[in-house]
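yo, NAD(P)-dependent oxidoreductase is done. seq:
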Amino acid sequence: MEIYKIGFCGIGNMGPGMVKNLMKAGHDLTVFDIRQEAVDALVKEGAKAASDHADLVKHCDIVMTSLPYPPIFVEVMDNYFIDNARAGQVFIDMGTSSVQETQRIAAVLRAKGAELLDAPVSGGKPGSDTGTLHIFIGGRKSVYDKYALLFEVMGNPEHVVYCGESGSGQVVKGVNQLAIGLVNAAFIETIAYGVLAGVSAEALKKGVGGEGGFRRQFTAIADKFIQGKAEQVEVKIGQIDMFLDAANHLGFELPLTRTLYHFCENGEKRVMDANRLSQSYWHELTLRASGYQS
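structure:
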């Protein structure tokens, strides 16, 4: 594999594992984060430190981002990276971002002779640390082909997939997140129906749960109820509005997704969901249940 000079911006929850795996593969890594302690930790592992965003872009042929919120990615690109981008440079967004903004930024970079690959991931910190992430890549196919082996350093080769033109990786990440969120919400709601009607979560688990098919997931969610952790089950509320916007832009509806979002959107943000402070579907259900004390 060719060795690259790679800049990495955003080394919070997922970034350190990806950086370390890239360094293990022999690549030259320069990192930047607004938290100096995060930078220092990777410098001790062999990375170099950039002084700021512009310095990161200046010294690297490939610039990767793993930022916590879509607006932060847009801000960093618009205010720092685009102005400093040069012909032949490749930017790779490993975070979850807006399809429309991804396509806009890709077009702006392409006009300067640079490229953007959207490459959101799934698998959490364990997948990042072990190099077994699912990675969904969108962008120009020839660019993906050139750098495909980089993604296989960070992800499971069986689940590193080229999805199509710019924004396609973000579409597939949306499918991933909605599949998790809607399925989890359905199980939360069905178990809540039983619990709020006076049946114990233990009885529901024994009666409906099991080893195969939907029963396995039902069992896992019921266990969260039994452990008193039902409100922590993620339904991806913090990202749903972005997926609704993408669907609206394309001219179709996501009725189940929209219903879930409207049910929770004005609720108290009290749990971490997709690494974001967000509303809890279980909390909103029980809060509205007359006479029930969660």
